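During the no-cost extension, the postdoctoral fellow (Dr. R.K.) reprocessed legacy sequence entries with the updated structure-token encoder. One reprocessed record is reproduced below for audit purposes.
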Amino acid sequence: MTDVFIDRQIYKDLIDHLEEKEISVLIGPRQSGKTTLLRKIEEKVKLRGQLVEYYNLDVLAHREVVQNQTAFINFLKGKLGQKPATIIIDEIQRLKNPGQFLKGIYDLNLPYKLIVSGSSALEIKSSVSESLTGRKKIFYLFPLSFDELVNFRRPDIKALRGNQRLYQQEYLNLLNEYAQFGGYPKVVLQPTTEKKIEALEEIYSSYIEKDIKGFFGVRNETAFVTLVMLLAGQIGGITNKNLLAANIGSNRQTVDNFLSYLEKSFVIQVVRPFFRNPEKEILKSPKIYFIDLGLRNTAVKNFNNFETRQDKGQLLENFVLLKVLKEAGRLDKINFWRTKTKAEMDFVVQRGMDIFPLEVKAGRLKSPTFSLSFKSFLDTYQPKQARLINLNITGKRKIGLTKVRVQRFYEKIF
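Re-encoded structure tokens follow.
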């Protein structure tokens, strides 16, 4: 099982970047598959007949080799000379000052291509990005996207298109798996429900131990864990930080700190309001979603079947956000819209001067139905296009000046 390689969409991008002098920086949450991916790149480089060195700084012996910059450079020169080589350093945040360390090696103009990885945006971006301005390209590796899960489980799924009933049912089966257990590779590869839950609990506890206690230095672990549970129970809801503070027995500043830790260690995604009229629309209170639905379900201790769950609307909304994050461009902004009279649009994606409102419905629709909130947004902002994302039907409508596409959850949004 551990030898199975799940093809990741980012793999080709990293292989292509081997030809560039820039340092390839791979960032993502723990156990999202970074080490497996780096080992696959190592294997690819060797198959090309090129030299490659791999160091995992979670391994003490490897860290001792790498930790002193001068000694490491001399070691590489002695071993590789001036031959072109790829140097892979996994978990680079283990070094005291990884940005300066990498900058020093890069600026020597040695014939070595550097690829490094790290498990925390705070650890990596704060220490690497500033030091490596103009010297690096950042790649993000998250748990498997739904498309990656589909390609792994059913690489032949397109062959089922001739039988629409079977085709859609297979997608619904995969949605059920993804909404229950998420996309962490270790979880996906487990053979049973019990093993999947065990793997998720291990990932969750490892995150608490290594990131929260270790790097962030959180002392009140009970308050932190309680906050995670509360957030997991209200995904897609407006976040009241004062109420959260009261519920965990702390203050708003602590809540802000905890939310920052969660976001920077790739546990949650904060979505902020879209507004043009401050008198009528919510300006500040964000919504919170989880980067992995399995981790979210671990926090609420609910792994029931998607279609039977009371929170399936929340889960599908979170699912759509993850899909939007995967499809969105680097400059796109993802927000939600809500008025003070509680009219709401699940997501508003800003692409340059254009806006794309998205409404998510988790029920099985017989025909397109549009909420008053949906119509209110279209009437107020008159976007060129909008999306109604649901489980089972497709179609097109024209509402005022807006072309509305009704689409199934697995279809491409943009």
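Residues 279 and 340 are 8 Å apart (CA to CA). The chain has 16 helices and 13 strands. The remaining legacy entries will be reprocessed before the final report is submitted.
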